[in-house]
Amino acid sequence: MKKYSVLLAVFTLVLGVILASAFAWLFQHQLFMRAQQQQLEQYAHLVAIAAVGRGESNDANAELQALLEYAPIPVESIQLIDTSKKILLSIGNHSQVPAELTSDFSQNGAHWQLVIPATPNPASEQLVVMQGVWPEQAVMLPFLPWFILVLLIGIGCIVLLTRWQQVVAAAAHFADEDQSSPPLFLHIRKAFQKLQLQLAEHEQRHSQELAQLTQQQQLTEHDLLKARKERDASNEQYQQLQQTFYYWQQLSSRAQQMSEAELQFKVSAIRTFGELSSHHYQASPQAMTAPQWLLQSHSQWQSLMPAGIRLVYDEDPHAYQSQLQFDQYAVTLLLSLLLRQCASSLGFGDISVSYRLSDSPNRMLKVQIRYEGDNLPEAWRLDTQLPPELSWQQLDPKLLRELISVLGCHYQIESLEGLGTHIELRLPVAMQKLNAAKPFHSIGIYAGDECCYQIYKQSLLALGEQVMAANSMQELTKELKTRLVDLLVLILPDDFVVNDEQIALLREMDQRYTMLCFANPQLAGKLSSELQLKLLSRPMLLEQVVRSLAEQPEIRSQQLLVVDDNPTNLSFVRTILSGQGLSIDIAMTGAEAIKMATHSRYQLILMDIQLPDLPGTEVTKRIRQLRHHQQTMILAFTAHAMQDEMVSFKLAGMDDVLIKPLDAKKIAHILTRIRPESETLSPH
How far apart are CA 289 and CA 119, in angstroms? Predict the structure, then answer.
């Protein structure tokens, strides 16, 4: 393999030398011909050219003959004359050649003579003769010398390349010679080492200076960038302060025409805008449930609504299953801006506000606002560029964008002509699951507004396992005859007719059920004079329901309820059991027993089967639907009980049968059945 490599290298060298030699010879020939052509063109008016120098020879004759035939200018004749003016060789027509030669000059060691006759022949321009000796550099070398020269140069380069490593090693060895070397070599070696040290020091110093300059340049660029950022921040802060100051000026000039609620809102809006635009706003997240936040925010929103605008809330049925942590102030202010603008675009009607909690894929509070009216202005869309000039109308849209940015929420508006406007906000929140049981098993609701009662029904599922809804008092009365409810919620419409029949019905419901009644202020004033009933202002909010129930008297804890329509039996039972240290309540009708069971918690109930209004089995079924009586001991209190009757008692929810009349053994049985009371469940 090595042999073939050597042959290939030799072949390559020879081929390269041949090509280089040929190129050099051709280049020389080109230069020679160009020199001749330039000389002939310079003296294109000559008639004859004579050369003096080498004597007569066949080569000279051939050269002159070729020059005469192939000259690029017309030449009449050429004479070869020596320095004694003797004609050695003559070619062509030379009858016009003058005999007198003058004007000697020299160039590159060759002698040239130009002859200008005293009286030129006017009939011909061929009167001037150039004579001279051919210069050595004008003689073209043949190809062989060029080939030998290039070959020697190539061989020398190859030898130098092959010996380069040896030369470098020898120089290094020479630099490392010990003191035994000749003095001249030692002196040279020391000088060489000194030069090396100086070179290394120079390189090190140069590197350090370069590093320092680079570091200084970076520091300068960093300082320059920092200064530019500070300048931009200062300019931005100045513009923001200028905007805030402008809004305070505008508010001062408009304050006299604003209501107190509107003025407070604008003050809060401008202050928050200044804090947000200057990046001085401090978020204050708090932990609470969504119904608690909505109850706090509703009063502010309602105070900003003009007459004729009603807010209707659709709350999440799972609202009490999670506790949220977010910046309530910023979210409330953001929704205040949107609701004010929606009310301005609507003019008159309802604005629906709904919220839902979501923990997949991200934990968020999704709020939706819907109304049927004119679209929001373009400035309230994030994809619209606000004009640069200051305007009082730009405060709310600018504050909206700042709040959306600081809260990191998603904001979207959809408007369809004739179908209304839909606004959606998705607010990221921290969320913690709560293991809260619903406080009611069954809730009944009456909402006179047919378009809203389904919304209220859906919301009340956050407090009850079942919700029965009716859109008329007649339908509600009919449902209550067949179903037992733990809580009754009445949302009275504005056109509710107040008469004796309705007053009696409301009074009866209040006596039989735990009831909350919502009405507008005018209707509440009419009803409060006729009923001893606490009326709540609309709209209905879940947290308002929970707090109102908490303010009512707590369910009493009693040990025993005796239900019997015979006064003699009741007197006998009370006398006997009171002597045992038991606290006893007495009911003579089924409705009265249900009412007392609703407001009290008993450990044991003696239920007569034959009651004047309802069978004891039916009363037992309704009491069992109450959450705090699902585990209460209920005994059928009857004079006789057949086997099939015993089965019906069990199916109604009774635990056992106690045959009248009481005796010592039965009293002992009752005392052993008294159970400790259970904890009351709350929505929190």
Answer: 130
**Cα 69 from Cα 57, distance rounded (Å):** 18
Other Cβ atoms within 10 Å of 47 Cβ, number: 21
Unique residue bearing structure tokens 């009831």:
515
**Is the Cα torsion angle 96, 100, 102, 104 positive or negative in sign?**
positive
Residue whose structure tokens are 């925010």: 297
pLDDT at 2: 53
Q: What is the pLDDT of residue 296?
A: 92
Rounded-to-integer distance, Cα 196 and Cα 192, Å: 6
147, 18 contact by CB (below 8 A)? yes
Print burial letters for 372-404: b (CB count within 10 Å at least 16), e (below 16): ebeebeebbeeeeeeeeeeeeebbbbbbbbbbb
Other C-beta atoms closer than 10 Å to the C-beta of 478 total: 12
Report field, pTM of the whole predicted structure over 0.70: no
For residue 52, CA distances in Å to 55, 56, 68, 116, 490 come to: 7, 10, 16, 17, 142
The encoded tokens of residue 617 equal: 């089995």
Return the structure tokens found at 105: 């000059």
Written in H, E and C, the secondary structure of 118-172 is CCCCCCCCCCCEEEECCCHHHCCCCHHHHHHHHHHHHHHHHHHHHCHHHHHHHHH
For 645, the token pair is 């009757």
**Residue 109 confidence (pLDDT):** 37
Mean pLDDT by 10 residues, the chain (684 residues): 62 73 73 63 47 48 65 58 58 52 38 38 37 41 68 73 60 54 67 79 85 86 84 78 86 88 90 86 88 92 89 92 92 93 87 91 91 86 84 89 92 81 93 85 83 85 89 85 81 84 82 82 80 81 88 63 85 75 83 84 86 89 81 83 79 83 71 51 38
Contacts 24+ apart (CB under 8 A), 15-18: 16/154, 17/147, 17/150, 17/151, 17/154, 18/147
Cα–Cα distance, 268 to 413 (Å, whole number): 25
pLDDT value at position 333?
Answer: 93
DSSP 513-549: S-EEEEE-HHHHHHHHTT----EEESSP-HHHHHHHH
The residue count of the chain comes to: 684
Q: What per-residue confidence (pLDDT) applies to 643?
A: 75
